[in-house]
Write a structure and sequence with these properties.
The complex is a heterodimer. Chain A is mainly beta. In chain A, a hairpin with a 2-residue loop joins strand 6 and strand 7. Chain B is mainly β. In chain B, the strands form two sheets. In chain B, strands 2, 4, 5, 6, 9, 10 and 11 form a seven-stranded mixed sheet that branches. Chain B has a four-stranded antiparallel sheet with strand order 1-3-8-7, with no helix packed on it. Chain B is globular. The N and C termini of chain B lie far apart (37 Å). Classes of the chains: A mainly beta, B mainly beta.
Chain lengths: 113, 115
């Protein structure tokens, strides 16, 4: 079983604060790293698919970086808003895992107005 | 993104009964569907992968006779929890993709409680 770790488990920030959280994954046999945003009672929504070491992707106020050699990815949210409150999941896809995703437990973000 | 619809969103059933959960891709043909289970404070764990028209491939430790998966069409897969017991109470969620290297889209999930 592949180990994908996310930290912190939960995070409470004030509106306007910037925040970041971490996903660590195996550094060998890497194929892709997925980030999802999951609001309560909704479907997980894909944020980024990252494949190249050193990749940096951005979507509005959210950005992510990838380091495949050391096996970690950071997700950053600039100027958090209450609507950013959600659980953020990362998922690792390996080169020999036949397309299956290995998920972390998620980071639950709450942004207070 | 594409839409995957999962029903029901929650279900309570008596111990010993069977429960069927449906997962539909509404605007694309899902050649592959994945079924996950999530226990409290745990990660999403893959239970099985099904390709349309083929038997599902189950992950180690998942009983195929207990969790019956049918993927008879390109837009519908079902998961039937047979003879459910309280320990089967969990959150079940499907995802579907159109091709091997394409993005998979998730349903909304089903909260199953067995009493």
């Amino acid at each position: 079983i592949l180990n994908v770790e996310q930290s912190p488990q939960s995070l409470h920030v004030q509106e306007g604060d910037s925040t970041n959280f971490t996903c660590s994954f195996p550094s060998s046999n890497f194929y892709a790293l997925h980030w999802y945003r999951w609001e309560t009672a909704k479907s997980p929504e894909a944020l980024f698919v990252m494949t190249l070491n050193g990749d940096e992707k951005k979507k509005g106020r959210i950005s992510a970086t990838l380091n495949t050699k050391e096996g970690y990815s950071y997700l950053y949210i600039k100027g958090s808003q209450p609507e950013d409150s959600a659980t953020y999941l990362c998922a690792f896809k390996g080169g020999s895992t036949l397309g299956r995703l290995y998920f972390g437990r998620g980071t639950q973000l709450t942004v207070w107005p | 993104g594409a839409v995957v619809s999962q029903h029901p969103s929650w279900v309570i059933c008596k111990s010993g009964t069977s429960v069927k959960i449906e997962c539909r891709s509404l605007d694309f043909q899902a050649t592959t569907m994945f079924w996950y289970r999530q226990f409290p404070k745990q990660s999403l764990m893959l239970m099985a992968t099904s390709n349309e028209g083929s038997k599902a491939t189950y992950e180690q430790g998942v009983e195929k006779d207990k969790f019956l998966i049918n993927h008879a069409s390109l837009t519908l897969s079902t998961l039937t929890v047979t003879s459910a017991h309280p320990e089967d109470s969990s959150f079940y969620i499907c995802s579907a993709r159109g091709g091997y290297d394409t993005e998979a889209f998730f349903g909304q999930g089903t909260r199953l409680t067995v009493v």
